[in-house]
Amino acid sequence: MRPFALFVSLVLACSAAPRSTPAPPADAAAPAAPVRFVSLGDSFTIGTGSSPAEAWPAQLVARWGQRGCRVALENPSVNGYATDDLVRDELPVVARLRPAVVSLAVGANDYVRGSTPERYRAQLRVIFQGLADAGVAPRQVFVLPQPDWSTAPAARGFGSPAEILNGINTFNSILEDETRRFGGHFAPLFALMQRQAAAAMFAPDGLHPNAAAHAAWAAQLVDALADPCRP
């Protein structure tokens, strides 16, 4: 074969050879899966009067995301739910998803339905035991107080503001006691909630906190809670 023909043959052979894709660096890691967060509760958690996207769980997830922590939210809360409903319909979600973080906010509808403080306490113990049975450690649980809805325009049919506030305080005290007994974190939001009520930060339905109130809860929670992306 003449030299020129040999050169051409070598070029064609090299160009026909398969090209291997460079391997990724040894230290390149796949993005971490998002942390799963389940928020249990009633209208104050699902965002009644605003929207689920404006409710504090979604706003808290957004704030975690701004800090570089990816969180996947599951919010099975339902307007009007009391502890009985939560045990029946929401606790199974925790058992199925095995989340890294769980929130709890329930009690207003127990009070409205006439539940006694003693029964409310017993129901909370059922809920916390259900979380433990689902493999949720106490350090993974944070609990919100019932907000102050005693002066909301739509609350007039449930009693006087003083009577309603007394019931809210009684149920919140029990909720805090049982949270600490379980070993969870009770979020100190009630002073903020009372300032919001005094400023009439209610949704158009005249009962529930508005989106701005939920945003303020999320802002306080993101600073009060441990980063869920860190073990």
List keywords for this structure.
231 residues; alpha/beta; Rossmann fold; five-stranded parallel sheet; 9 helices; globular; disordered N terminus
Largest sheet: 5 strands, parallel
Shape: globular
Derived from helix and strand composition plus strand pairing, the structural class reads: alpha/beta
Task: List the strand order in the largest sheet.
Answer: 2-1-3-4-5
**Helix and strand succession?**
HEHHEHEHHEHEHH
Number of helices: 9
Can you identify the CATH class?
Alpha Beta
**Rg computed from alpha carbons, rounded to a whole number of angstroms:** 26 Å
What's the CATH architecture? 3-Layer(aba) Sandwich
User: What's the number of extended β-strand segments?
Assistant: 5
User: Mean pLDDT, as a whole number?
Assistant: 90
Helix content range: 40-55%
* CATH fold description: Rossmann fold
Write the layout of secondary structure elements.
Layout: H1 3-16, E1 35-41, H2 43-46, H3 56-66, E2 71-74, H4 83-97, E3 101-105, H5 108-112, H6 117-133, E4 141-143, H7 161-182, E5 185-186, H8 190-198, H9 211-224
Parallel strand pairs: 1-2, 1-3, 3-4, 4-5
Summarize the structure in short.
The chain is an alpha/beta fold and 231 residues long. It is built from nine helices and five strands.
Overview of the molecule:
With 231 residues, this protein is of the alpha/beta class. It has a single domain (33-224), classed as Rossmann fold, CATH 3.40.50.1110. 48% of the residues lie in helices and 9% in strands. It is built from 9 helices and 5 strands. It has a 5-stranded parallel beta sheet, with helices on both faces. Helix 6 (117-133) runs parallel beside helix 7. The radius of gyration is 26 Å and the shape is globular. The termini are far apart.
